[in-house]
Amino acid sequence: MYNLLIGGAAGQGIDTTAAILEKLLKCSGYNVFTARDFMSRVRGGHNFSLLRFSVSPVHSHSNQLDGIVALDEETIRLHKDQLKEHGFILCDSKLSAADSRLIQLPMAAMAKTLGNPRVAGSIAVGAVLKLFGESLEHVGTVLHTFVKQPFFDINVQAVQDGYQSMETRFSHLPGSYSAQMLISGSKAVALGAMAAGLRFYSAYPMSPSTAIMEALAVHADEAGIVVEQAEDEIAAVNMAIGASYAGARAMTGTSGGGFSLMVEALGLSGMAEIPLVVIDVQRPGPVTGLPTRTEQSDLKFVISASQGEFPRMVIALRNPSDAFYQTMRAFNLAERYQIPVILLSDQYLGDATATVAPFDPQKIPMAESGSVDAGSGEYLRYRYTANGISPRLIPGKSEHLVAIDSDEHDESGQITESATVRTQMMDKRMKKLEGLQRELQEPEFMGTDDFKILLLGWGSIWGPMEEAIQLLNENQPGRYAALIFGDIYPLPQQRLKEKAAKARCIIDVEQNATGQLADLIRETTGIVCDHRMLKYDGRQISGEEIAERIRKEELK
User: Fold this and answer.
1) Which residues is 35 bridged to in the sheet?
2) Which of 49, 301, 332, 443 could be a cystine partner for 18, CB 3.0 to 4.6 Å?
């Protein structure tokens, strides 16, 4: 397994260089995972990508580096201590550092000789390929997807020049992942929405959720989707609700600050019983917070957002494959129960790219939109039913009036202030939770049943936690296990209670300052976590960091 960091200032082409490299490595057969860390600015600052590749599955990043591609001196200064003894620092000849691992290559001068200073990144790509013992077999195919035709030949030559200037340091490892997909969490969400029959997506651009809207916009025409950039998040969510009322599968996306503006409309979805899918791609708050960083601090917020009480579903996405299938499932749940379903992602999962098996939409059968049986006699949009789900017709597609209201209403949709009707309607809506309980998916279990210490986490902690369990069990086989929650509200309890009863110690691992999952578990089940391992500096915790912190705790 190899770990490479590509770093520099915004505007130096770091993301493009990383994207080309990760695709070339995937084509060579590697399983690839790339995490992105960037500042909230167009130029300057310090940005970097952590590219990890192996012949075995890779699901998270590492801070222990085999190589650094430094486009500025700050990258060397900030990251050289993470470099392994036999690693390398590749940089331009103009940069310097007192480090024997430095490899200086006149990339800027070479690019100038070729006639285009912007091809320095391609020279670096070629140099890295040679250092890791890779061939140039896939360069032409990959560059065609990134470079416009007038600049194709010069970039191919730049890669070749960089390749020829290096000597191999590491051995090529034969992998079997070339036929798999390389996709980010946000693009996986977009594909899942399209596979679920999305017809209308509205959003206001807000990092780190904008990548979903961009991915949908690229395919909007061919997929028959309306993608609307609204003037703000209030308009975006109300547009989505209106589209859903009219029969279109609809979704909106934002981050925590935008979700704050959506909460009243979320209540409208609950009161009017209109299906809605919302994704919150979390970043640190409050207010603007750290716009381009990651955190898991919106859990309690989305569970209780909007005044009053109404049923909802909250699903935390764990990895790109999970993001695809859970997004499809979210649309089904929203349609089946006529409720808002909230997906929780974050910057780490949304922007990271990973190698995954091709998605199979047939795994999630599509639920019908609207009720096909409105019953005989008068149509009552909010008819009392045993399961709380009333017959839903689409306006304009039947002879019936489909009346809805944001005020409390009777079965026909007419406003009421009757205490009796209010109680009946609340009971009807809340009955949906009984059905949702039967739909819940238990958290994923990692480890063996002879464990002593149980770790708990949710969402994008999945990848780092998997590695942490492997690392911790290397010297003490079977001692550690973990539960990673996807479905998170209502909280699935069966597997949690079963595993917690066996654990001598329970440790909560989260990317927030208070341990929101631990609080939810205690409130719902009475199970108390013995320790909370929290990180809230805007940077994703790694499997190595989890393992190291637990070992230190055990030594105390």
Assistant:
1) 50
2) 49
Residues 145-185: pLDDT tens digits? 999 999 999 999 999 999 999 999 999 989 999 999 999 99
CB-CB contact of 529 with 521 (8 Å):
yes
Can you list the domains of the chain with their CATH numbers?
2-164 (3.40.920.10), 182-363 (3.40.50.970), 444-555 (3.40.50.920)
17 Cβ contact list (under 8 Å, min separation 6):
6, 69, 121, 124, 125
Cα 269 from Cα 406, distance rounded (Å): 9
Question: Can you name the residues that pair with 228 across neighbouring β-strands?
Answer: 202
pLDDT digits (tens, 9 = 90+) for 488-501: 999 999 999 999 99
Give me the pLDDT at residue 374, please: 62
Question: How far is Cα of residue 20 from the mean position of the Cα atoms in its chain?
Answer: 21
Q: What is the largest CA-CA distance in the chain?
A: 85
For 149, other C-beta atoms within 10 Å of its C-beta total: 7
Residue 494, amino acid: Q
User: What does the alpha-carbon distance between residue 122 and residue 435 come to, in Å, rounded to a whole number?
Assistant: 55
CB contact burial 127-148 (16+ within 10 A = b; e otherwise): bbbbbbebeeebbeebbeeebe
The whole-chain average pLDDT of the chain stands at: 95
Which positions ≥6 away from 135 have C-beta within 8 Å?
A: 28, 129, 172
Per DSSP, helices labelled H in 207-291 are 210-223, 233-245, 256-272
